[in-house]
Amino acid sequence: MKITLLNHETVDQKETIDNMHSDEFYYSHLGLERALSYSSLKWLLQSPKWFEHKRRKPTPETQALRDGKLVHTQILEPHKYDQFTFVDTSSKNTTKWKLAKEQNGASMTYTLKEKYMCNRICTAFLQNDSCTSFLAGASEVEVPMLKEIDGLAIRGKADILRPGVFVADVKTTNDGLNDRELYDGTLKNQFAYTVEKYDYDLQAYLYTQLYDVPDFYWLVVCKTTTDIGVFKASQETLDSGKAKLEASLALYKAFFVDELIDLSQYHKQGTI
Description:
- It is a single chain.
- The protein is of the alpha+beta class and 272 residues long.
- The chain has one domain (2-265): Alpha-Beta Complex (Lambda Exonuclease, Chain A).
- It contains eleven helices and eleven strands.
- β1 (2-4) and β2 form a beta hairpin.
- It is globular, with a radius of gyration of 20 Å.
- The termini are far apart.
């Protein structure tokens, strides 16, 4: 099967997906000029100008992304964990840290403090039967996918996939996993606010479409308490994600395909 990328290049889907197991290929070769992703669709929702900025000038890894990569590797691909270098230093301003970063690369160099944080989170996850049950049986990990949705190439990488059944995504949070009582007396978990804040509903719906599965789960570890949350995306959440996907694809087409709107003239308007 052939896929047409955003730059109009035509590629073989299976061959490209095989190559996507390489992080270099996935993030660099198949970047914003060739395929959209959950992250780039989220940027479009924030602002087409922000999307264009990120496309022109990629920003360095945030600490949250660094922490997430370490946790994902230890849980999902422990055989790759030895590739990281851990430095016994109290500051990233020391010569020792700078030398290690220069020798091993910034993205592969961590402090021992970061390692201990990761170990604490991963131990909580791997000791929890509800979490590890998602890794059992026919489940696969770190599964890449490339499809055209509404005529646009979109890439993804599922943390955990049970083909035809579900996608599960491993998350960490600083916001806690406590239930909050609403005005009508019902309870709402704090993670529901995190889903809204970071557009996780968009990712949930997108991945059900990319992988052709009915269900999406978040497997969440709170960084402070190491509490565990296992949450299934509701139909309401998936519907919300669908609306966001449709809106973000419409924005991409209007500004970057059909060029119906001059980006320099983009603005918000209304009465406040």
